[in-house]
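Thread: "does anyone have the structure for this chain?"

Original post by V.I.:
We have the sequence but no experimental structure in hand. Need at least a predicted one for the grant figures.
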Amino acid sequence: MAPDKGGQAMAVGIFDSGLGGLTVLDAVARRLPDVPFVYFGDNAHAPYGVRTPDDIFNLTCAAVERLWAEGCDLVILACNTASAAALKRMQDTWVPPNKRVLGVFVPLIEALTERQWGDNSPPREVAVKHVALFATPATVASRAFQRELAFRAIGVDVEAQPCAGVVDAIEQGDELLAEALVRSHVESLKRRMPHPEAAILGCTHYPLMQRAFQEALGPGVKVFSQANLVAESLADYLQRRPEFRGAGTQSKFLTTGDPAYVSDKATQFLRRPIRFEAA
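Reply from O.Q.:
Generated one for you, tokens below.
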């Protein structure tokens, strides 16, 4: 990695329960080519979407501590389930003042409501009134997305669809099954909300299925996917808060699973060679 103009390049941590966060890693690495990233996949405990909030909190804290040990003062939870079920509790009770842990909902809500994070003006009317949210069962159950949206926008109807099975199918490399599940989940949602104007892919695995979601929803629905939105937000954040680039100096990939198996799946996933080490 090339050093920063101002000297040493520093590392930023990216955490996911499995491989889905690689969609975020790919986008942020393209957007910030001079910043090394340390990716941590908790593949041994994936998927998180079916776990209890306490379980998700404890596993996420353990992973974030491991990334701090790599010199990453800023960690992105590229896992919507962790962002929804654990992040607020972590920020309120656990994260020390010299570290930052950020979630992936924020950039989506900024894009949807067309306002900046930190804009604390009262909630206001926005153009989009009917929003479909596709996410894991735990993310849907947390209602975190609706809560964050309500701080910023009024009069938005959110219909959430828990997409059981999609993450497992993607992690196993079964694209046909994943596409069939996407179609079935979209049909279920449309029975409750026949004409969504926008759809949120509220899981970092789902960008890999974006075409399937778009085809099932139809051309009139704007599909918001997280990876590029997170990349833009992170670039903006690091420009404003350069001290959170951390002390790490090289990119690496860590997993709690079997490194050879995870490397193989990640290489298929991103269509370029990725080598994981044991965390």
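V.I.: this helps a lot. The first strand starts at residue 12 and ends at 16.
O.Q.: and The domain at 12-104+227-278 is CATH 3.40.50.1860 (Rossmann fold).
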